[in-house]
Specification:
With 78 residues, the chain is mostly helical. It has a domain of 53 residues. 59% of the residues lie in helices and 0% in strands. It is elongated, with a radius of gyration of 15 Å.
Length: 78
Protein backbone atom coordinates (compact mmCIF):
# COMPACT_ATOMS: atom_id res chain seq x y z
CA UNK A 1 0.00 0.00 0.00
CA UNK A 2 1.50 3.30 -1.09
CA UNK A 3 0.34 6.34 0.86
CA UNK A 4 -0.38 9.45 -1.22
CA UNK A 5 1.71 12.59 -0.87
CA UNK A 6 -0.22 14.95 1.38
CA UNK A 7 2.29 17.76 1.94
CA UNK A 8 2.33 20.48 -0.71
CA UNK A 9 5.36 22.33 -2.07
CA UNK A 10 5.06 25.41 0.14
CA UNK A 11 4.37 23.26 3.20
CA UNK A 12 7.44 21.13 2.41
CA UNK A 13 9.70 24.18 2.08
CA UNK A 14 8.41 25.60 5.37
CA UNK A 15 8.99 22.26 7.13
CA UNK A 16 12.55 21.96 5.80
CA UNK A 17 13.44 25.55 6.70
CA UNK A 18 12.01 25.11 10.22
CA UNK A 19 13.83 21.79 10.58
CA UNK A 20 17.17 23.31 9.59
CA UNK A 21 16.52 26.23 11.94
CA UNK A 22 15.80 23.88 14.83
CA UNK A 23 18.98 21.91 14.09
CA UNK A 24 20.92 25.19 14.24
CA UNK A 25 19.30 26.06 17.57
CA UNK A 26 20.13 22.59 18.92
CA UNK A 27 23.76 22.90 17.83
CA UNK A 28 23.93 26.35 19.42
CA UNK A 29 24.24 24.76 22.84
CA UNK A 30 21.93 27.15 24.66
CA UNK A 31 19.24 24.55 25.50
CA UNK A 32 19.11 22.27 28.53
CA UNK A 33 18.58 18.52 28.07
CA UNK A 34 14.77 18.08 28.10
CA UNK A 35 14.19 20.94 25.68
CA UNK A 36 17.20 19.92 23.59
CA UNK A 37 15.75 16.42 23.10
CA UNK A 38 12.38 17.80 22.06
CA UNK A 39 14.09 20.22 19.67
CA UNK A 40 16.00 17.37 17.98
CA UNK A 41 12.83 15.27 17.73
CA UNK A 42 10.76 18.07 16.19
CA UNK A 43 13.61 18.97 13.82
CA UNK A 44 13.86 15.34 12.65
CA UNK A 45 10.10 15.11 12.10
CA UNK A 46 10.06 18.39 10.16
CA UNK A 47 12.99 17.37 7.95
CA UNK A 48 11.71 13.87 7.21
CA UNK A 49 8.11 14.88 6.49
CA UNK A 50 9.35 17.77 4.35
CA UNK A 51 11.72 15.53 2.41
CA UNK A 52 9.27 12.69 1.70
CA UNK A 53 6.11 14.79 1.37
CA UNK A 54 4.06 12.60 3.68
CA UNK A 55 2.78 13.61 7.10
CA UNK A 56 1.20 10.76 9.07
CA UNK A 57 -0.78 13.20 11.22
CA UNK A 58 -2.23 14.85 8.11
CA UNK A 59 -3.15 11.38 6.81
CA UNK A 60 -5.00 10.45 10.03
CA UNK A 61 -6.83 13.79 10.08
CA UNK A 62 -7.65 13.67 6.35
CA UNK A 63 -5.74 16.88 5.63
CA UNK A 64 -3.78 17.56 2.46
CA UNK A 65 -1.87 20.63 1.36
CA UNK A 66 -0.75 18.88 -1.83
CA UNK A 67 -3.94 19.56 -3.75
CA UNK A 68 -5.22 15.98 -3.71
CA UNK A 69 -8.16 15.02 -1.56
CA UNK A 70 -7.78 12.49 1.22
CA UNK A 71 -10.58 10.72 2.97
CA UNK A 72 -10.16 8.56 6.01
CA UNK A 73 -10.76 4.95 5.07
CA UNK A 74 -10.52 5.58 1.32
CA UNK A 75 -7.40 5.38 -0.78
CA UNK A 76 -7.29 7.18 -4.09
CA UNK A 77 -4.66 7.01 -6.82
CA UNK A 78 -4.43 10.80 -7.11
Amino acid sequence: MKLPVNVGSVDRIIRIVLGVGLVAVAFGGSLAWPLLGVTWLVAAIMLVTGAIGLCPLYFVLGISTAGNRLAIGRHSKA
